[in-house]
Amino acid sequence: MAFTLHCVSVERSIAIFSPGLLGGSLVKTIQQRMPGLEVRVWARRQEAVDEVLRVLPGVTASTDIATVIQGVSLVVLCMPIQHMPGIAQQIAGCELADDLIITDVGSVKGGVVRELEAIFLPTKAAFLGSHPMAGSQHTGLAHARGDLFHQAACILTPTAHTKPEHLGRLRTFWVKLGCRIQEMAPQQHDHCVARISHLPHTMAVLTTLAALRKDTRVLDSSAGGFRDTTRVAGGDPEMWAGILMQNRTEVVAALQDAATELLELVEMLQTMDEEALRRFLAQAKALRDLLPAV
Amino acid sequence: MAFTLHCVSVERSIAIFSPGLLGGSLVKTIQQRMPGLEVRVWARRQEAVDEVLRVLPGVTASTDIATVIQGVSLVVLCMPIQHMPGIAQQIAGCELADDLIITDVGSVKGGVVRELEAIFLPTKAAFLGSHPMAGSQHTGLAHARGDLFHQAACILTPTAHTKPEHLGRLRTFWVKLGCRIQEMAPQQHDHCVARISHLPHTMAVLTTLAALRKDTRVLDSSAGGFRDTTRVAGGDPEMWAGILMQNRTEVVAALQDAATELLELVEMLQTMDEEALRRFLAQAKALRDLLPAV
Question: Which residue segments constitute the domains of chain A, with CATH numbers given?
Answer without folding.
Answer: 13-184 (3.40.50.720), 189-288 (1.10.3660.10)
